[in-house]
Design a protein that fits this description.
By secondary structure, the chain is α/β, with parallel strands linked by helices. The chain is built from six helices and twelve strands. The strands form two sheets. The protein has a nine-stranded mixed β-sheet, with helices on both faces. A three-stranded antiparallel β-sheet has the order 1-5-4, with helices on one face. A hairpin with a 7-residue loop joins strand 8 and strand 9.
Length: about 240
């Protein structure tokens, strides 16, 4: 049985043009960053208000519904929990001794990561609209990391809106480039015939590129786990 996620987003659906930032111009720094990464679609919504994300989920995400208590109910597809046997970390000289390799932290080559990254970007570029969430992991400004999530499902954006520390309007203006980029193309599968792939799901973390790629799972908790893994590794390296 598939489980439903319930995320409280408020009762008011105020989808006015001013309730979110719609990035439509190549001169915008976030749009320019995405194009540098390789992502280019018609509409990109950055840090949209929860009410907007709820409305978009109801409009564009089949299976989503607004409950009588004002919460959003949605589904994560076949995966209703994390996929530990599909979690991969790029093995490089700089980080190989930092990872407890095994059946959970599976080694992958930089080439394998880039193939999945390109696959995720190619898929995201077929979408009509994407969502960007910029936020912080960690309260202490000295050590916190800037996280940028790029995803196609409003519920994924809403989940990370809740999980991350939300920047103020002034902080968003000066957010700059992220410390960590998450490319969530979970509705699109990995190629299980590619070298190193064992299923149609792959959750990949590249510690030196500071990027995460998600394929073949729509379970939102994979993003949170990826952020925690990166931050714990960075904290160890920085002596926090």
């Amino acid at each position: 049985m598939r489980t439903m996620y319930t995320l409280r987003a408020g009762r008011s659906l105020l989808s006015t043009q001013n309730s979110y930032l719609s990035l439509r111009f190549a001169s915008d720094p976030v749009r320019s960053y995405l194009e540098k990464v390789g992502v280019s679609v018609g509409e990109v919504f950055r840090n949209a208000a929860p009410a907007v994300l709820v409305e978009h989920a109801i409009r564009y995400d089949p299976g989503s519904a607004l409950l009588d208590n004002g919460a959003l109910s949605t589904r994560s597809g076949a995966k209703t929990g994390r996929s530990p046997k599909d979690k991969r970390i790029v093995d490089e000289p700089e980080t190989t001794n930092d990872v407890g390799w095994g059946s959970v932290n599976i080694k992958m080559t930089p080439s394998q990561f880039m193939k999945n990254r390109n696959r995720a970007i190619s898929y995201l570029n077929t979408r009509e609209r994407l969502y960007v969430i910029d936020g912080y992991a960690g309260w202490d400004p000295r050590y916190r990391k800037k996280i940028r999530v790029v995803c196609e499902r409003p519920y994924h954006a809403l989940f990370m809106h809740v999980m991350l520390i939300r920047p103020s309007a002034a902080e968003l203006q000066t957010f700059g480039e992220p410390d960590v980029l998450i490319l969530n193309a979970g509705k699109f599968t990995a190629n299980n015939l590619s070298e190193g792939m064992t299923s149609d799901t792959s959750v990949d973390l590249h510690l030196t590129r500071k990027e995460m790629v998600i394929l073949g799972t729509q379970y939102a908790g994979e993003m949170k786990k990826g952020v925690l893994t990166y931050v714990m590794h960075a904290s160890m390296k920085e002596g926090c």
